[in-house]
Write a structure and sequence with these properties.
single chain, about 325 residues, 5-stranded parallel sheet, elongated
């Protein structure tokens, strides 16, 4: 080897660590996290981070997460989504339908992953569950499909119920999904032989009036329809149900943990953990439009016996036997 070859070889060896360092730096992923109210559900963010850790991502080491939250005010979501787009993050995680719609409005190119979309097709997030197309994909919670099952669970747990109030938030998911949920509640109630009374609450300021309307209509039980705002305000809803002595069924176990009577639906924390797998695939080059929307296959019934006792209820043993968890 002559002197020229030796110099070139040494230069190449010197450049190798620099190249490796540059490659390592390039591996730091940037994730945007667009939340309605992160403070209300810290365990869900933790579940998502755990999902990332299971896949080898550690916040502050090889992944940076840019958090933006609307503090419960849905009207703030578009501006916050625009901020994340301006930061040029690699992927935006938009947990629920309002956040995902705001993110989709802000960008048609950056990948978006939703974790708990109520009805991805009806809301316009994707064109097809099997092949979403576009830049959005994630996990669905089958919100409209489970409404009838929740009413059924409620009537089984509280025999003799004949009038059920259905609390809903207009515009929570879009007009088509709202209509679908109301229709399914009406059909299920008719099949179960109970009357359903729809009560609107556009925001938390309407809660007291809504429960007053339920009492005036002599509702004997309550079902709370899906809504990100309701979930954020779940403790207040649970307290109002207790105050008005209304046995209630909810979509998430988080309501029952807060003192609600019962819930039926998929496990939220599990959905957030699983969303990390979508983020991982996208960071590794997959296109969102090619990743099928995942639908839950496991649903859990959670019952709070302490709440039942406070309401003077005796939950039938047949119902308790089929519950996934009973809180004493």
């Amino acid at each position: 080897m002559d002197r020229r070859d030796t110099v070139l070889a040494l230069l190449a060896l010197g450049a190798a660590p620099l190249a490796a360092g540059a490659q390592q730096a390039a591996k730091v992923a940037r994730i945007g996290f667009l939340a309605v109210n992160r403070a209300a559900n810290p365990h869900l963010r933790d579940a998502f981070l755990q999902g990332l850790r299971d896949l080898g991502y550690v916040e502050g080491r090889n992944v940076v997460i840019e958090y933006r939250e609307a503090e419960g005010k849905l009207e703030r979501l578009p501006a916050l989504a625009a901020e994340l787009v301006a930061l040029k993050v690699d992927v935006i995680v938009a947990p629920n339908t309002p956040a995902a719609l705001a993110a989709k409005q802000a960008t048609r190119t950056l990948p978006i992953v939703f974790t708990t979309a109520a009805d991805p097709v009806q809301s316009g997030l994707v064109t097809n569950l099997a092949r979403p197309g576009g830049n959005v994909t994630g996990l669905s919670i089958l919100a409209p499909e489970l409404i009838g099952k929740r009413l059924e669970q409620l009537t089984q747990a509280v025999p003799g119920v004949n009038r059920v109030a259905a609390l809903w938030q207009p515009g929570a998911f879009g007009e088509r999904t709202d209509k679908d949920m109301l229709k399914r509640a009406e059909v299920a109630a008719r099949a179960l032989g109970v009357r359903v009374q729809f009560v609107e609450a556009r925001d938390p300021a309407d809660f007291d009036r809504a429960f007053s309307d339920m009492t005036s209509a002599r509702a004997s039980a309550l079902t709370v329809l899906p809504s990100p705002t309701f979930n954020t305000e779940r403790r207040r809803l649970v307290d109002l149900a207790a105050k008005n002595r209304l046995p209630a069924v909810y979509e998430w176990r988080e309501y029952v943990d807060a003192g609600g009577l019962m819930s039926y639906g998929p496990n939220l924390a599990d959905l957030y953990r699983r969303a990390a797998t979508y983020v991982d695939k996208i960071l590794k080059g997959a296109k969102p439009g090619d990743l099928p929307v995942e639908q839950p296959t496991k649903f859990e019934v959670v019952i709070n016996l302490k709440t039942a006792k406070a309401l003077g209820l005796t939950i039938p043993q047949s119902v308790l036997a089929h519950a996934d968890e009973v809180i004493q």
